[in-house]
Design a protein that fits this description.
7 strands; 5 helices; alpha+beta; VC0802-like; seven-stranded antiparallel β-sheet
């Protein structure tokens, strides 16, 4: 039900992101979604790819600080308020959303989120019949 996200710690300096993208390109990996966040000293580049283990190994072998993280990809109807309603299910269940990013794909909103409790998250997804996608299903939208 969950997918794996690659998280790479990068220095806040010119060319750091390009180095990572060049590695991804050289491995012929497709990026489904990505986001960059930063602090004063470093950034975190998070990405979803259909081959997360291959990406992890390629980046790790080049000395980068990289992690595989379990996240959820939830497909939402393209209607006003759907995201708010969906997030409220997790809030009411006492689940903290540690971070989230979203994108629009094939007339659907896709939420990528990391939560504080994977087991309870799966229970909420199941109870509310949310459409949770895997990496292959995300690719089928293209």
């Amino acid at each position: 039900m969950s997918i794996h996200q690659i998280s790479i710690f990068i220095e806040n300096k010119l060319g750091s992101l390009n180095e990572i993208l060049d590695i991804i390109k050289s491995e012929k990996l497709q990026i489904i979604a990505s986001t960059v966040s930063d602090t004063v000293e470093y950034g975190i580049y998070r990405l979803i790819t259909p081959e997360p283990r291959k990406a992890y190994l390629a980046l790790k072998s080049r000395g980068l600080a990289v992690n595989l993280t379990e996240v959820f990809a939830i497909s939402l109807a393209n209607t006003v308020g759907t995201a708010a309603e969906t997030i409220s299910y997790f809030t009411l269940a006492g689940i903290n959303i540690e971070y989230m990013y979203s994108f629009y794909l094939d007339n659907r909103g896709i939420l990528i989120m990391r939560t504080s409790d994977t087991t309870k998250t799966i229970e909420v997804i199941t109870a509310h019949k949310l459409n949770c996608l895997n990496e292959e299903e995300l690719l089928q939208f293209n």
